[in-house]
Each structure stands twice: as C-alpha cells, then as structure tokens.
Amino acid sequence: MNCFGIFDNSNVETRRTSKTGKRGEAARRASSIALSCMLGFTMLISPVTVRAEGGQPRSLNNSVNYTLAGETDGVLDYARTDFAKEDASGIHLTVTKWAKLASSWGDTDKGPYNGRFLINFFDDDFYKQIQSIEVNGVQFEKEADGALWKVPINNQTLQSGLIGVVTNRDVIIKLKNGATLTSLGLDSKKIDFTTTWVRADGKADKGGNDNGFILKNNPNVPALPSNSGAGNDDYLGTGLNLLTTDGTQSKDGNFSGGNTGKLVSYDAKNKVIKSIVSFKPDQNFLQANSGWVLYINEVIPKELLKYIDTNEVRLGVSTPTGTITASNPIKLTVDPNGNGVISTKDTPELSIVGGDWSKVTQVRSTLDLQVFYGALGQRRSYTIEYKLKSNVSNQEFAKALNDYITANNQQLNFESWLTADFVDSTPVFHGIRKPDGGKPNKRIQHSYTNAFLEVLDTDKDGLFDFVEDEIGSDKYNVDTDGDGVPDGQEYLTDKTDPTKANSYLVVKPNATTTNIEANRAETIKGTVPKTIYNNPADETKKLTATNTDAGNVIVKSL
Fold it and tell me: Is 494 helix (H, G, I), strand (E, B) or coil?
C-alpha cells in the first residue's frame, strides 16, 4: 500500500499468513497489543497537530529570510562577495566569481528566488536603514523589511555569460536620507551578511554560498594607495617588476590581479574548521617577484583556540571547497594561549626571519609547490585546517559557537591577508634578490578578505547547517526525505534517519482485532493515527508526506 492509498482508507488490514506450528498451539489467544514498525507509514485518520521538538538553541537574529529547494554542485567554481569601501555614492561590495559554464540561471518566473542572487543581512540597526541596492544600474528587490535583497542573475547584473575568467561587479548600497555608516554609528561595527546564487531550479549553487562583513574602520585594513602601481608605506605596488634593489619598492608582479575571496566552513564529520581563500593571479608566485616570500596572516576569534588542537593546524593548496590537495601540507605554529592572530611568519618552515638567501630559496619553493601551486591563468585556492581537540563533541562545539554569537551579537568572523618579506641583505644579485635591509613587511593589495563560520539553521528545521552536512540531510529543506516529519524532530528527538522516508516514528495503531489463531490466515483490523507537524519554517502551514517510500505500515501482533 502506498502513501496515497493509505489516505483513501479508514482502516488498515494486515494479512497474516500462518506457518505450520505444533498441534497443541492451534488456538492461541493473542494479546491486543499491536506494534508498528518504525520503517513504515502511518494513516491519516485522526490527525494530531504538534510542534517539532528538539531544536537547538540559537540567538534570535541568527537566521536567513528565504527558503530554497536545496543545494547542488553547479557551474560556479567559486563566487565571493567582500566589502570594498564606503564613499559618496554608497557602500560598495565587490562580487567576484569564476564560472565553468554560463547555464543554470533564469526562470525567475518559476519562484520568488529562482535565478536570483540573494544578500541576507542580520543586523536590523543596519538593514532597516537601507534605501536601495543596485548592480550595474539594476535595482535589487527588498524583502523581510530590508533583511533580504534579491536581483536576477544575468549578463547585465553579474556577467553570467562570462566563463573561464574572473569577473568582478560593484554592488552599491545606498542608505536612507543620505546616511552613512559613520552617521549611524556603525563605522566600527561588523555588519555580517550572506550571499547565495540560486539556480533556475530553485536550488543554491554550492560554489556561490558565501558570507562576510562590512567594517568601515577596520584596523586590519590600512588605507589603500591612491596610486595602486606606486604602492605606499603599507602596500607593495601592483604591476610588473624591474631590477629594483629594494624589495619594499618592488611590485607584486600582478600576482594579486584578481580579487580575493574567503569561505569558512565546518566539516562536522571530521571535526575540522576550514578557512579557504580563492583568487586568480595574473602571474605565478615565483615569477611575480624574484625575491619575495609571502606570509599568510589570519585573525580568528580567540575563543575558538580552547577547542582547537593547535598541534594539528595544516595549510595547503586546495579545491575551492577546502579539500587540501598539497602533497605535503604544512603544520602551522599556533599559540594555544594567543589572541587569535596567526601568521605563517611564525612557522619556521615558511619564515625567512634572520635567514639568508638559501633560506629564502627553500621557503619560496615550499610556497610554490604546497600553497600557491597552479596553472597560469587559472584560479588558486589554499586552505588552513583547524582540527578540533579529540575530546570536543559536535554538540559541545555547536553550543559554544551559539553562546559566542549570543554574547557578542555577531558571527564568528575570520580575516586574512598576505604580506611580503625579503632577505635582509645579500652580497650579490641585488636586482633579483631585492634585499629590504630589515624594513617592515608590506601588504599585498587586494589580498584582504573576510568571512564567518556560519552557525545557521537555514531551513529552520531545528538542525544547524553543519549538523545537516554531517548527517547528509538537506539544510535547505525542512523535511529532507519527504516523510512529513521535520529533520530536527527525527534526528534529535525521535532518533530516526531524516534522509530515509521509510524511517520515522509511527504512532501505536488502534487495533479492533483482539484474537487470532496461529495456524490460520488472519486479518488484523484497526486504524493508525497520523501525527501532523507544523512546518517549523512557517508555523501557519502543515507538513505533508510527499515521498511514496514513506509507506507500508507493518503491524505485528504479540
């Protein structure tokens, strides 16, 4: 019997075919207790509406304002959005992408989010002050009182037709009544946001899932030079190198030609935080500057250090989703009692502090092979893995993350950037080795990027997204398997599998048959009530079973 047939009947009749037994047991009285198998479907006879239980505690503002059909691998290799600046025209976000194909978008008439780019904000002190958002002259639509903004993905908006190259688009946010971040008192506050690229089928392209924050007065971002090619006291200049004899006056060789993007994710299965940086250089690392070594600098919430095994922090070239592909990933030196500022300058294998030219050569080779390796013209990604201590459970970690967000009223933000160092002195080949005389390191323009470790329940089913990633359920779907039970209810309370429609808790049936004979085919008659749950994403709606695999109630007599 399938689930649709069940809905059409008021009684369930389960045939019991007898097996040959001992003659003395021909007439055995059965108890009236009938047990239903958990791998079955229940009848909708007298539905009882309940709220799903077992949802994880979370801060009140920590949610997105849309519901999607799911997520899937798509045409985006990566797509990142970063705060660039605020000026007289508004607040500028740079949207950077690398796409493998131009398809997947469109069908904006099929649903409210199909074929659209979404920006979701969390801080109502900010988003309620937004007047408009536009990209290349096209206005975004507003939802959720300004917490959510959306725009169609096409050639005009986000250059969807350009593939195999990095594209950058300027998104401009205008505030009401000419306000600025400074006039609103928000210039020193981190304003978190998420961005999502939704395909024509209503599913998120995994390569476009991103987040970050707006922070005008950021102590980790010195003022950029007015002339990018010339650089300034904080940054190397951009462009091609000549035989400059002072490394601090040399150029980046267009290594940072493409904007940098960051993604932070949590691999719950392996209990590893992944901090991923993707960018597209216009020149390879060794050829961009003949004398430099680059340090990767990262700032993480210091509160995380108590949960991280600081002896198991690794760095290596990776995929855009954080799978390290380096042949020999490098273990980084991290102070377990530090302030959350991490630099490869502190790792002997990657540092040239106090070293001679032979040390520079060694570090350059390691960086080229293990961190920045890639084909010219293609995007690069590298990942820092922060493995949790073995005694830290996912539930404990989830609670710690949520406590941090509640206490600090912000997400768990990560920041990173590159700095260049050169040998202090060398007796020969100054134009190639570019000694800097021990001067302070300079930053690489366009290398700063930020993101936060998401502790979200996107579909509002009671499970954090990273828990859904761990167990294989869909973080965009309240009821992954379509059995009519919210994923959070199944996993946390009922202890059933939210990915299998034939695994859910069935209500005890009401059997009217009280006697059966052991050696005869019998029919057990009765009803099986069906529990109807409110949709936790929209309490005005009920969840219904949509998967025919959620059928076949098995009733047994004892």
Answer: helix
